[in-house]
Design goal:
The complex is a heterodimer of chains A (379) and B (529).
Chain A (H helix, E strand, L loop, with lengths): L4 H36 L3 H11 L3 H18 L1 H10 L1 H21 L5 H31 L3 E3 L5 E3 L3 H4 L2 H25 L4 H29 L2 E6 L14 E6 L4 H5 L5 H18 L3 H23 L2 E3 L9 E2 L7 H28 L6 H6 L5
Antiparallel strand pairs in A: 1-2, 3-4, 5-6
Helix pairs in contact in A: 1-2, 1-3, 1-6, 1-8, 1-12, 1-13, 3-4, 3-13, 5-6, 6-8, 8-9, 8-11, 8-12, 9-11, 11-12
Chain B lengths: L7 H40 L2 H35 L1 H35 L6 H30 L4 E4 L4 E4 L2 H5 L2 H31 L4 H36 L1 H7 L12 E8 L4 E8 L2 H7 L9 H27 L4 H10 L3 H5 L13 H9 L5 H30 L7 H9 L3 H15 L4 E3 L3 E2 L9 H38 L13 H6 L1
Antiparallel strand pairs in B: 1-2, 3-4, 5-6
Classes of the chains: A mainly alpha (379), B mainly alpha (529).
């Protein structure tokens, strides 16, 4: 079977979505657990239960983010260049948070002083909260368009600032992101941690689930009515060279949900989020944490996919030079690179999923205070 | 000049250099210790002696502290390409991004998924199950070195890619050439062996510390024996494979080699190797040279008849390539004005390999096609990297390489004759060697990457063009942020390492109570295990 350039680009758009959802679902629950850490654990022993619930697996989960970054670099190099240098200081804050996490997990338990441990509790909270908020804010900005353009050598020029990123709609998306991972982390701890941490996590998770469903709806209304959207004008060659300056794009006030009107079946994507979030809340109150965790995972996938599908065929619209917006058809790698990366993904991703599943099955069972105290390896 | 006067290029380079060197404080130890842990645990599974499980777990604690820092500082490296080097990411992302993404898929997942099970799986897995996990962890760390060095090898020797005028970037034309790039292969084996040396020196030095204090004898003697034998093999290969690296450099990066050797003029074959001397960049000569006849010719060309070109001749070559590059640049301009210009297309097809040389002129004037003869000569001389620092860094690194061979050979001899624990003078030497492998590794990177300047991709893209269009203030902010943040972490990391080492296996893992009492062991018996 030979795949043409258009199909490859489409597959890599789907894979980008799959990797970002993989990150949000897998790393999402340990980021969420870190956000909940100071609230569901009241004593040092309880907090160690939270930390050790995610302790053995969070490192592997974070690779979803690293791989997401690497895949954007390899498959969508212009998106990588624009997003990382455009959101410069925001990315730096994310980096600081991601640096604090591994050392926080590892260093906290090495010294017994309660002040030392409290310091790392809040460091871990920050390490969970800040990236969650900023990734939401970044998506909020992508939905509205970002102020960049290209010069004749395709050198990207960015005309925004950190404060420009923090506009009301983007911050609202940041809140959605925090609610989403609070729910997901809460469902995970309800499943994995021993009492009383599990019940407290379930309670907060339930509240986050309801707020998430409401906020998601409000966000949808904003996108349809209040936020500028972008539309391709005329033809674009889906097999053409990756040069994002050769097309014409117009800005429309509102209408961000246009895609769902044009392809009605796609409405299953936002519906997934809208149904799964309250379902997760309900299942948490019925003490079915396993199913609740599945539902919260589906809600996370639905929310992330709704943003991605809503933008299609855009990856990142430009607010100051709409013609220079990055789309699926003119911002990818070469056909050969997409093909090679697809082969590599087809071989290794199933392997990754298989051994990850095995590791989780080895680590199955609730984390108790007694077990944490008994194991010298505990964080 | 203060920090505030520095431009985006200098600040971005400074940031990359500092964060990469900082990251590489942790990487070689991870590489080496992961394999040493796997070896120690293999001994445990094969002999069934509890003490080896304890040894593995003890070094595992130190491995864990170091691994966390490696992970933390590694994310910065990936993000930085997009943040500070956006034009680089656009210009070569099609080629450079692929090995990075495959590194994530193939290696990072492996090491990061199994590192948790290494610590938390001792009581959940069978002996063989846990041993498999440890080996997979070691495999993951080594594979990640492979893919990052394939990416780095391409920056040194950009094979398998061509310039596409329609997308204004380099694109993959031959992926297997990229993977089997001889520079990447030579660098991979050299770097990984350097990691093994680092791990072995670490284990040997800390074991020496315990033996000097007459503590933890049962752990220290056995650990030192493993470190001595593994370290000896690693130290030998790091030098031999470093020589291979020198050969590929002689093939592909002649300017780097000439700069390392401070060789201004081409010598008649076979060239001699300058052991010592004082390079003078102003006068373009090296004073007080002490030379070893034939040696450089043998290392760099594997022959006694081929010449190793000197800097002045190489600069003349560069002038010629700049002229070809200008033809490519001219054709590209015409092609962008009119996509159907067949003549320009044909010219570009022939000359696009030299396009990067025309870009060197952009530092001197934006309208490169109007460059004068003087400016072309100036641009050609800009391809000479800083000679003296390279000359000295290289010599210190190589000197340390030979010292490690001597160190491990001695350790191996003492351990196999059962005298290691009593040779206090040697134990002191081993302890004081602790920082040496890091010095050698950092100098090695300095030689490899500063020797590549002024190119970010040798012959393809000058470093000054690769940066993002961001303000110097922003880069300065993040640079200072990283320096502050990293310094604080370094202190905490060192404190915790020292604390764990002082606590030792007894207090970290509880007192040792073997299920079957073991005899007092002379080291010879340990070696026989």
């Amino acid at each position: 079977m030979t795949l043409d350039y258009e199909t490859l680009r489409l597959i890599w758009w789907l894979l980008l979505g799959a990797l970002l959802i993989g990150f949000a679902v897998m790393d999402g629950f340990d980021l969420g657990a870190a956000i909940l850490l100071p609230f569901v654990g009241r004593t040092d022993a309880e907090r160690r239960v939270v930390i050790n619930s995610v302790g053995p697996v969070w490192e592997g989960n974070q690779v979803w983010l690293i791989l997401g970054g690497g895949a954007i670099f390899a498959a969508w190099p212009m998106l990588y260049a624009v997003a990382f240098s455009g959101f410069y200081l925001a990315m730096f804050l994310v980096l600081c948070a991601l640096i604090i996490r591994p050392v926080g997990f590892k260093f906290r338990s090495k010294i017994h002083d309660p002040r030392w441990r409290r310091f790392w509790d809040w460091a871990l909270f920050t390490g969970g909260f800040v990236p969650t908020l900023i990734f939401g804010v970044a998506v909020g900005n992508a939905l509205q368009g970002v102020p960049f353009r290209f010069d004749g050598d395709l050198r990207m020029i960015y005309e925004g600032s950190l404060l420009g990123l923090l506009n009301p709609f983007a911050l609202f998306c940041g809140v959605v992101s925090v609610l989403m991972l609070t729910l997901h982390g809460g469902a995970f701890l309800a499943l994995k941690a021993d009492e009383p941490v599990a019940s407290r996590a379930a309670l907060i998770g339930r509240q986050a689930a309801m707020l998430l469903a409401v906020a998601f709806l409000i966000g949808g209304v904003c996108i349809q009515l209040g936020v500028d959207s972008y539309r391709l004008v005329g033809e674009i060659d889906p097999m053409g060279p990756s040069n994002p300056t050769l097309k014409h794009v117009e800005v429309v006030a509102g209408g961000g949900l246009r895609v769902y009107g044009a392809h009605l079946w796609m409405i299953v994507v936002p519906l997934l989020a809208l149904v799964s979030a309250p379902a997760a809340g309900l299942l948490l109150s019925r003490r079915r944490p396993g199913l609740a965790f599945v539902a919260s995972g589906l809600a996370v996938a639905g929310v992330v996919a709704t943003a991605g599908v809503g933008l299609f065929p855009f990856l990142l619209p430009s607010s100051i030079a709409p013609d220079h917006s990055l789309t699926v058809w003119d911002a990818s790698s070469s056909e050969l690179t997409l093909k090679i990366m697809l082969v590599a993904t087809a071989i290794f991703l199933p392997l990754v999923l298989a051994y990850t599943a095995w590791v989780y099955s080895v680590l199955r069972g609730r984390v108790t205070i007694a077990a944490v105290n008994a194991d010298v390896s505990s964080y | 000049m203060t920090f505030a006067d520095l431009d985006v290029v200098t600040l971005s380079r400074l940031q990359f250099g500092l964060t990469a060197m900082y990251h590489f404080l942790f990487v070689p130890l991870t590489l080496g210790l992961a394999v040493l842990l796997a070896i120690m645990e293999t001994v445990y599974v094969m002999t069934g002696l509890e003490i080896w499980r304890r040894i593995t777990r003890f070094w595992g604690v130190l491995f864990g502290i170091n691994f966390a820092m490696g992970v933390a500082t590694g994310v910065t490296m990936e993000f930085q390409f997009g943040m500070n080097w956006a034009y680089y990411s656009h210009y070569v992302g099609d080629v450079f991004g692929a090995p990075l993404a495959i590194e994530g898929l193939m290696a990072f997942f492996l090491e990061a998924t199994f590192v948790g099970l290494f610590f938390f799986g001792w009581d959940r897995l069978s002996k063989i199950g846990h041993l498999t996990v440890t080996w997979l962890l070691a495999l993951g760390t080594n594979l990640s070195a492979l893919w990052i060095l394939i990416a780095n090898g391409w920056m040194q020797n950009p094979v398998g890619a061509t310039f596409n005028p329609e997308t204004m970037r380099m694109e993959v034309s031959d992926f297997s050439a990229l993977i089997f790039n001889p520079v990447a292969q030579a660098k991979f084996v050299h770097t990984v062996s350097a990691g093994y040396v680092t791990g072995s020196v670490f284990v040997l030095a800390i074991s020496a510390f315990y033996l000097l204090r007459r503590r933890h004898r049962e752990v220290a003697v056995r650990s030192a024996t493993v470190a001595a034998s593994f370290g000896l093999a690693a130290a030998l290969s790091v030098v031999v494979l470093g020589d291979e690296s020198g050969y590929t450099t002689g093939e592909n990066q002649k300017m780097k080699l000439a700069a390392i050797e401070a060789m201004w003029k081409t010598e008649p074959a076979p060239a001699s190797f300058t052991l010592f001397g004082l390079p003078d960049a102003q006068a373009r000569e090296t004073r007080y040279e002490v030379k070893v006849p034939w040696m450089l010719g043998l290392i760099a060309t594997r022959s006694i008849s081929k010449e190793v070109p000197g800097i002045e001749d190489l600069v003349k070559d560069v002038e010629l390539r700049i002229r070809f590059g200008l033809m490519a640049y001219d054709a590209l301009e015409k092609l962008r004005a009119d996509r159907t210009n067949a003549e320009a297309r044909a010219t570009l097809d022939v000359t696009s390999g030299e396009l990067g040389y025309a870009l060197l002129l952009k530092k001197i004037r934006p309208d490169v096609l109007n460059a004068t003869e003087d400016e072309i000569r100036q641009a050609a001389w800009s391809t000479v990297p800083p000679v003296s620092p390279l000359f000295w860094s290289f010599r210190v690194m190589v000197g340390l390489g030979f010292f490690f061979i001597a160190l491990f050979a001695t350790a191996f001899f003492l351990a196999s004759t059962g005298r290691l624990a009593r040779s206090r003078r040697f134990l002191w030497v081993a302890l004081l060697t602790l920082p040496a492998p890091w010095i050698a590794a950092e100098l090695g990177w300095y030689v490899a990457e500063v020797g590549r300047q002024p190119w970010v991709i040798e012959g393809v893209m000058p470093t000054f063009l690769a940066v993002s269009s961001i303000s110097a203030g922003n880069v300065l902010t993040t640079l200072l942020g990283f320096v502050a943040f990293y310094s604080a972490l370094a202190i905490v990391d060192l404190v915790l390492m020292v604390k764990a080492i002082r606590m030792g296996p007894d207090r970290l893992l509880g007192r040792f109570a073997p299920r079957h009492p073991e005899p007092e062991f002379p080291a010879a018996a340990v070696a026989a295990e």
